[in-house]
Amino acid sequence: MAAAVEQEFRGARRRLVETLQQNGIRDLSVLHAIDQTPRHLFVPTGVRHRAYEDSALPIGNGQTVSQPSIHARYLELLKLTGEEKVLEIGTGSGYQTALLSRLAAQVFSIERIQPLLDRAREIIQQIGLRNVSFLLGDGTLGWRQYAPYDAILVGAGAPELPKTYFEQLAEGGRILIPLGNLDEQMLHMFTRRGDQLEEIEIAPVRFVPLLGKHSWEAR
Predict the structure, then answer these.
(1) Which of 23, 28, 139, 195 is most buried by its number of CB atoms within 10 A?
(2) Which DSSP string corresponds to 148-192?
C-alpha cells in the first residue's frame, strides 16, 4: 500500500517537473531537486492530495508553502553550483530548505515559529538530508556565527534590506528578497561587489511580512 502511494506521488511529481519545464524553468539541477523531493511530506495530510499542483498550500500557524514554480524561479536565479553556504530566512514547511540542501553544500535556516521549525527538522531528518542546520529566532538578525554566506534567500517581504544581510554576505554573494509594503512587494536580487551592492528588480510578488528587529515589528 505504502509503495503504491509513493508510486502515485512519484508520477504526480514527474508531471509537476514537466509543467515547470514547459513554463520556462531551464536549470536541470533545480528540476532534479524538485523531482527528488517529496513535497507531500511537507504539507498537512488534509491537502496532501494537492501537493504536486503548482499552487501555494496552507501549512498551519497562518503560514503557507509557496507554489513550486516560485521556488523553482528563485533557485534558478541563485545559480547554485553545489559549493555554496546558504542562509534561508523563513524555514516554513521546510520544503524549500530541502531543495536548497540538494543544490548547495550547507544550508542554515532560521524560523521564528517553533512548531513549524520542529516539523521541518523532523521531515528533513526523515528523508535523510544531513547538510542543514536550524535556528529558532529573529530572521532579520541573520546567523552571524556561520557567516559569510554565498547566498541569502528571504521568504518574506521587508520594507528595506536589513543591513545584517549585507554584513553577512560573502564577496560575490547574492541576496534574494521581496521589498515593498505589507500588501505587495518587488523581488530584488542584490550581488555584493566589495562595499557595494548591485541591485536588480526581478518581478512583483506578494509575501507574508518579514517580522523582526530590522524589518516589520511583530505586533
Answers:
(1) 139
(2) -EEEEEE-SBBSS--HHHHHTEEEEEEEEEEEE-SS-EEEEEEEE
